[in-house]
Each structure stands twice: as structure tokens, then as C-alpha cells.
Amino acid sequence: MSGITSSAATLPYPSAPGRAAQHPVISLSAVHKIYGEGEAEVRALDGVGLSIARGEFVAIIGASGSGKSTMMNIIGCLDAPTSGEYRLDGIATGELDEHQLAQIRNRKIGFVFQNFNLIPRTRAVDNVAMPLAYRGVSRRERHERAMAALDAVGLSERASHLPSQLSGGQQQRVAIARALVTEPVLLLADEPTGALDTHASHEVLDLFDSLHATGRSIVMITHELDVAARAERTVRMQDGLIIADSRTGGVA
Ligand SMILES: Nc1ncnc2c1ncn2[C@@H]1O[C@H](COP(=O)(O)OP(=O)(O)OP(=O)(O)O)[C@@H](O)[C@H]1O
Ligand SMILES: [Mg+2]
Predict the structure, then answer these.
(1) Where is the ABC transporter domain (predicted)?
(2) pLDDT mean across residues, the chain
């Protein structure tokens, strides 16, 4: 059970090592998310089924209000469905308490946000090391792993720079290094190129391509069709439902 610390004993692990690749990274079954009641009821998700295998690179697209963020929040274990089941890497999340959900988030998912969410006045390497601090990893190992993650995004020579001393594209690459430093099973990106110019967007998408090539699972929300076209699969949402799912890349 490599990578699982003693504190993980409270997490119900579904399977023995070696069987992990057999279940999807993400499995949503008949997921509903309903806000409000009566006349004010909003069916933000209205019966979503979605299965994403390990190593897939998937874009989620759809008009404003179609349910993308609602679905991302559920996939990210930041919110729970009103009904239906969500399994993350084989674990039935509905059976977990708040503490276990926080653990699974930290252990399984690397988040990338539109606005990078780096800690200001904190060196790139220390930003990247941050998620490891919650895991009782020694200072020296935190530094080593953060440097390795920065190297993987091509920024080891900027390790001592502050966020304000980096370009937007570089800041997003630091944020991606931070998302990867825990070696999560899934990279979850919400409009990762939304705040970037064309050149920086390509830098980030090239990085996603190379992560995908090394077997990383990536789920990315985007408004931009040319960005979605970089994924190998595009899931289109409308009114809380998945209305198209194209495996060829590009838009269905
Ligand atoms: N906390 C909430 N309370 C009530 N309604 C909500 C809440 N959050 C979202 N909704 C509604 O659920 C629907 C889906 O919202 P969601 O944020 O998932 O859309 P989205 O596809 O992410 O849109 P955007 O592209 O604008 O970010 C919308 O009609 C929205 O108004
Ligand atoms: Mg949204």
C-alpha cells in the first residue's frame, strides 16, 4: 500500500493494490443535485451518469448555468449529491464523513483554479510544498518533492521567485506543480486557461498533454472550444444533463 500513511487507516480502501486500475477514477450514477424547494427548486444536476477511466483527459463544456461547477464540486468532494452515487477511485464517497472527505480530497485530487490561488509573498517552492505539510512529511522531503514537481513543469530555476515575480503562465505551472506534488490520481482543473493569454494557454495545455502522456487522469472545465479540443474526450452539459460525450476530441 505505497503512499498510504498510518493516518489513512480511517479511509475505507476498496481493493487490494494491483486491482486499482480496474475501477474508474470517477463514477457518477444517477446523480442529482437539487437546490431550493417548490417554485424555487433548481435541478442543477438532473440525473448524471459519467465514468472516467484512469489516464483519460476529459474536457467538460456547456453553457453558463448548465451544471459544470456543480458537477466539479461533487467530483472534487467539495459538495455531496442530493441523490445518486459518486465513487472516486472506487471509494463510495456517500459513506464518508467530513473528515474522511477532506482526507480523500488531499490524497486523491490535485486542484487547479482559474486564478492560480497561490499564496502571495511565498516562494514558488514553498507554495508547491504546501499540500505535503498536512501529511506530516518532513521539511526536507517536502522541499525535495516540491523541487521535483517544479522540475516536472519546467520551472526549477524559478523556485525562489515569489508569485508576483512570475508571469501568469508560470504561476499556473507552479499551481499545477502544487496539484501534482501529492501524486494524486486525478488532476481537476476549473477554467485553467481562463485568465491566460493565448501563448500562456498553450504552455499550460502542452503541460497537460505531457502529463496525460505519462498516464495522468485530467478533468478540465472550459468555456473555450479550442481548449476543449486538446482533450481526448469532450463531455457537454445542458440543463443539468450530459447531452453529448465525444471520445474523438473536439466537440460533439
Ligand atoms: N448554491 C446554489 N443555490 C441555488 N442554486 C444554485 C446554487 N449553485 C448553483 N445553482 C444553480 O444551479 C445551476 C447550475 O449552476 P453551475 O454553477 O453548476 O453552472 P455552470 O455550468 O458552472 O455555469 P458557469 O459556466 O456560469 O460557471 C444554475 O442554474 C445555478 O443558478
Ligand atoms: Mg461554473
Answers:
(1) 26-252
(2) 90
CATH class of 54-79+106-246: alpha beta
Task: Indicate the top mutation candidate among 46, 61, 70 to test ligand 1's pocket, ranked by most ligand atoms within 8 A of CB.
Answer: 70
Residues in contact with ligand 1 by the CB-under-6-Å rule are: 35-36, 42, 44, 62, 64-70
Angle between the N-to-C axes of helices 168-180 and 139-152, in degrees from 0 to 180, rounded to the nearest 10 = 130
Q: What is the mean pLDDT of residues 132-157?
A: 94
Q: Do the bridges between strand 217-221 and strand 57-62 make them parallel or antiparallel, or are there none, so unpaired?
A: parallel
Residue 68 CA: which ligand is closest? Answer: 1
CA distance 153 to 169: 11
Q: How confident is the model at residue 22 (pLDDT cuts 50, 70, 90)?
A: confident
Cα 85 to ligand 1 centroid, rounded to whole Å: 20
Residue with cell 526536507: 140
Mutual angle of helices 168-180 and 124-133, in 10-degree steps: 30
In order of 45, 75, 143, the CA distances from 31 in angstroms are 7, 11, 40
pLDDT tens, position by position, 103-122: 999 999 999 999 999 999 99
Q: What is the number of the ligand closest to the CA of 65?
A: 1
Tell the residue nearest (CA) to atom 1 of ligand 1. Answer: 35
Assign 78 a pLDDT band (cuts: 50, 70, 90): very high
pTM of model > 0.70:
yes
Owner of C-alpha cell 499556473: 172
- pLDDT of residue 6 exceeding 90: no
Instruction: Tell me the pairing of strands 83-88 and 57-62.
Output: unpaired
